[in-house]
Amino acid sequence: FEESVMGHLFTNAPAKVMPLAEYLTRFQPAQVRPPGTVPAYSNFGTALAGLIVANVTGMPFEDYVERYLFEPLGMRSSTFREPWGPQRRDAIDPELEARISRGYRRQDGAFLAGDFEFIGSIGPAGALSTTAQDMARWMLVHLQEGELDGMRILEADTARRMQQRHHGLDPELPGMAHGFIEGRVHGWRSIGHGGGTVHFLSDMQMFPELGFGVFISTNTAGGQAVLRGFVRTLVERHFEAGPDPIPRSPLAEPDHDSGRYAGAYLSSRYNHSTLERMLNFPILQVESVAPGRLAVSGFGATQRYHQVAADTFRDLETGTVLRFVADDRGRSVRVLHSGVPVMVFDRVGPLGNPRVLLSVLAACLLVLLCVPVGAWLRRGDPPLQTDVERWSSGLAVATAVTWLGFAALLALGLMSLAGDLGNFFYAIPNGWIYTALAVGLIGAVLTVLSALLLIPVWGGGDWSLWRRLRHSGVVAACVVTLLLLREFNAIGFNLMP
Q1: Phi first, then psi: what are they for 4, rounded to 5°?
Q2: Backbone angles phi, psi at 307, to 5 degrees
Q3: Domain count, the chain
């Protein structure tokens, strides 16, 4: 499935929490690839698995988890329930609700408490409220193959199969187990899962070969700085290095043509069909800095990678591995990232790079800004022109102003969301964005009419060649603007699935 989160994944209004089946029906994202081909983690897919549990057992997901998992394991401080409104039965126990941590964001030098994040509509994908003590019991039951304190929730064979790898694109790099995501830390295979909401970030990693597990959770939007490297540092401190299949040391004689790896690589986990495509597009930018050395940006700070094997590079500080996949001509077309096996990164050229396309869009809008300014400056000196040329000129000015209005309204809509990440889930779309999209439809019609009027303009008239070329350039900028906005799903009300 495509990625789709804005405007529906979370809410801060308890009355908006839907039953699981209703949410999955209403907000089903587009399936953009055949199953089993390319990994692209999906919250929708995870929640769909929870709905299957409910349908097969005849019990609500929350009831089933409590009866068959939490109660037998003594996880008394864990629940998928929330303080939702009366439209959902059996909300969270008030005693547990009183113990739930608040989430915080940093603003103006202080930490501000955020709203409660309701995830119950897609509960199986991330609505769990729990404690570190309960998560320790959860990790122990998996490390002990389904049994804890004499209570068995999984047959040993089932537990082992759950931890086995079932999908991956490279046998030497992490892939996917059943519900768990593989990793490689200090040479040791890990299985676990991390995730985040507006204010909370959590990570759970288990090392079956070591009988060791780690759970960490933060309640601030800046918690990524705490999580980053925490598990790796802990494992490196307490355990010897494990049998990593990827070499740890740089090649003595690396490839001299590291430039063939350079370029932009777009994540497989991005939106295809809604306006979210314009706002969220994870890209790895790879640059060659020396033979066998790459600089890679896309996950915060730029990281330095050294070649350790053919088409394989390692960050010597974090241990993260990149493996490049080449086509028949030897050109790198894909990056496999050991830190995020839930997605791949495919090379994109300028026409497939959202950053480049947005830059072109900005350039077109700058050209269009000159149109009304020029018309204003020439208002006292009307040129010699036919009626068709006058209509065409006026229409071009109106079209340019319409597209500038669209851009201004969209910018105002996005600026009104700035300052709190939660707004991109709770308050999108807003009135500014709705109005911008309505104006965009008008701009599309005016652009088509302007393009059609080029035919009589070039068929004859009083304009000079230079005036016709200048006018055609303006119309071309309008057409390119329309095509780019259509590429980003900004023509029409393509707001959510």
Answers
A1: -155, 115
A2: -70, 130
A3: 3
Same domain, 280 and 220: no
Residue 291: what are its φ and ψ, rounded to 5°? -55, 125
451: phi then psi, degrees, rounded to nearest 5: -65, -40
Contact (Cβ atoms closer than 8 angstroms) between residue 113 and residue 103 = yes
Between CA 341 and CA 63 the distance in angstroms is 31
Residue type at 77?
A: S
Place of tokens 């070649």: 307
Residues 6+ apart with CB under 8 A from 44: 1, 4, 24, 27, 28, 29, 122, 125
| Whether residue 178 is found in the same domain as residue 211 | yes
CB 432 within 8 A of CB 416: yes
**Which backbone phi and psi does 293 adopt, to 5 degrees?**
-135, 135
Q: Which two tokens stand for residue 257?
A: 């043509």
Would you state the structure tokens that stand for residue 450, as one six-digit string? 């302007």
- Residue pointed to by tokens 């990524």: 224
pLDDT in tens, 234-292: 999 999 999 999 999 999 999 888 999 999 999 999 999 999 999 999 999 999 999 99
φ/ψ (deg, to 5) at 349: -80, -175
The reported pTM is: 0.92
Q: Are 424 and 276 in contact (CB under 8 A)?
A: no
- Pairing relation of β-strands 201-207 and 332-337? unpaired
Tokens of 178: 């059943």
Q: What span, in angstroms and rounded, lies between the C-alpha atoms of 269 and 289? A: 28
Q: Do residues 367 and 325 both lie within one domain? A: no
Distance from chain centroid for Cα 296: 18
Residue where a domain stops, chosen among 303, 321, 348: 348
pLDDT tens sequence across 438-468: 999 999 999 999 999 999 999 988 899 999 9
Beta pairing class for 283-290 and 293-297: antiparallel
What is the extent of the structural domain holding 136?
14-238
Choose the final residue of a domain: 298, 330, 348.
Answer: 348
